[in-house]
Amino acid sequence: MSKKVLILSGSPRRGGNSDFLCDAFMKGAQEAGHDVEKIFINDKKISYCRACYVCRHTHKCFQKDDMTEILDKMIEADVLVLASPVYFYAIAGQVKTMLDRTLPRWTELKNKEFYYILTAAEDSEAIMQRSLECFRGFADCFAGIEEKGVILAHGLYEKGEDINSPYEKQSYEMGKNV
Prior knowledge:
It holds the Pfam family FMN_red. InterPro entries: Flavoprotein-like_sf, FMN_Rdtase-like_dom, ISF_SsuE-like. Keywords: Flavoprotein, FMN. The chain is α/β, with parallel strands linked by helices. The protein has one domain (4-176): 3-Layer(aba) Sandwich (Rossmann fold). The protein is built from six helices and six strands; from the N terminus they run E-H-E-H-H-E-E-H-E-H-E-H. Strands 1, 2, 3, 4, 5 and 6 form a six-stranded mixed β-sheet that branches. Strand 5 (113-120), helix 5 (129-139) and strand 6 (146-154) form a beta-alpha-beta unit. Helix 1 (17-31) packs parallel to helix 6. The chain is globular and about 50 Å long.
């Protein structure tokens, strides 16, 4: 059965390591017959949540930016792929800003499969756990979610270091097995 897959690439570098692994995931998922879209978050205008809570009553944010469209796509998707480089042992700021902005319709983000892709210059998976827990904490807010796969690609600093790496194959296979 074909699924609707939304990849949210949080790399600030187009073609950077986490973005590249998103492309490998996308290729695998497309070859498996799924409807796949990748959003490069850095290209989008997403303002910070103002914690005004107007959205509690309207289910819409007062801010007019790209997040409305992204949130619609997140809700429509069967599968969400969250990807980020690890910066100072945390996810990239643009990813966190996007996650915070799901507040107006967070109760609609349910019954999804989640996949996580994280890249780091550090040579240890252990330091990546904080970032992974951030993604998991986000997903734990929703009903009926299922974590389906995780890639912790460590030891990658320069753009392109993951080309022909085991992480590229892992990402492709994970996408193929959605």
